[in-house]
Structures are given as structure tokens and as C-alpha cells.
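Hi R.,

As promised on Friday, here is the backbone we talked about, encoded as C-alpha cells. Could you run it through your design pipeline when you get a chance and send me back a sequence?
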């Protein structure tokens, strides 16, 4: 909805998203960071979106299920652990800062530009979580863009429900 109502805001969002292209941080890791920040922020739409994107990219379901307790699950790499710890610290900003120990671990895994990109990614997803949270949103409304399929295999489109309000899908 906000893309239609505030197009300049959506262009800004796309601009922030484009900053991470070629930044040296794997797309899969950035999506994992987005998923963890969305868990912390408690917004179902983004959880659904990033979960689906990660599954489509080949991430095992168990890894995603264990994300909330990532410290206890040994299958995360050291780089993933550093990114997740950084994500939690930047999202929560306990006492208004990131603990030095978290910074030291992150710097051991990431270059300065990569860490700046991770910080931008965490700030961006937190912004989108905060922006979209008060707006009416269908929690499972995210549809991954898929390549076109053979038209002979596609199901016929469903007719929209009578009286449905596209801005309030649940009403």
C-alpha cells in the first residue's frame, strides 16, 4: 500500500536495497539477518517473506526453525553467528549502544564496508518492520516472484471475493 500512497518512500526503500548489491555480504546471509530482525521486531509479513525467500534459495528448514535459538544450534557458521549477534545488538541497542565484544566478534568476520552494509540492512528491515506494522497487512500475503510457467499447467485465476477491500484483505 505505501508504494502507491508514498511513491518517493518506496523509491527510497529500493535505493537502500540497491546499496547492498556487490557489497561483499552474501544475499543469503542478508536474508537471514532480515529474518532474525523481523523475529525480534515481531512482524509476521516480513517473517513470511524472508522465510519463503530463504527456502527458495535452498536454506534448510531446520536452520530457519532454529534461528530464534541460534546460539544453541551448532550448525550456524562463525560468520552467521557474528552477523546474527550483530543483528540482535543493532536491533535492540541495549543502553543505546552495541557492546564492544559484539563489535569485536563482528569485525573478526567482516570488513568495515561489510559491517556497515550489515548495519544498513538491520536498520532498513527494522524501518520497514516499523513502517508496515501499524498498517493492515495479510501475514501470509507475500508471493515470491516466480518465472512464468507453461500456461497449460496454470490453474485458472480465482475471482476476487465480492466486497473485498484490497487495502484491508482481512475485512
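Update: got your reply. Pasting your designed sequence below so it's all in one thread:
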Amino acid at each position: 500500500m505505501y508504494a502507491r500512497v508514498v511513491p518517493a518512500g518506496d523509491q527510497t526503500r529500493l535505493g537502500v536495497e540497491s546499496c547492498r548489491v556487490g557489497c561483499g555480504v552474501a544475499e543469503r546471509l542478508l536474508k537471514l539477518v532480515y529474518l532474525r530482525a523481523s523475529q525480534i521486531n515481531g512482524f509476521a509479513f516480513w517473517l513470511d517473506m524472508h522465510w519463503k525467500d530463504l527456502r527458495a534459495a535452498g536454506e534448510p528448514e531446520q536452520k530457519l526453525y532454529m534461528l530464534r535459538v541460534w546460539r544453541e544450534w551448532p550448525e550456524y557458521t562463525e560468520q552467521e553467528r557474528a552477523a546474527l549477534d550483530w543483528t540482535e545488538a543493532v536491533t535492540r541497542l541495549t543502553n543505546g549502544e552495541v557492546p564492544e565484544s559484539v563489535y569485536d566478534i563482528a569485525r573478526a568476520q567482516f570488513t568495515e564496508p561489510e559491517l556497515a552494509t550489515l548495519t544498513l540492512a538491520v536498520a532498513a528491515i527494522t524501518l520497514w518492520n516499523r513502517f508496515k506494522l501499524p498498517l493492515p497487512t495479510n501475514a501470509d500475503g507475500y508471493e515470491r516472484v516466480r518465472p512464468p510457467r507453461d500456461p497449460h499447467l496454470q490453474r485458472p485465476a480465482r475471482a476476487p471475493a465480492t466486497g473485498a477491500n484490497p487495502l484491508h484483505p482481512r475485512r
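One thing I noticed while checking it: The chain has a mean pLDDT of 79.

Thanks again,
M.
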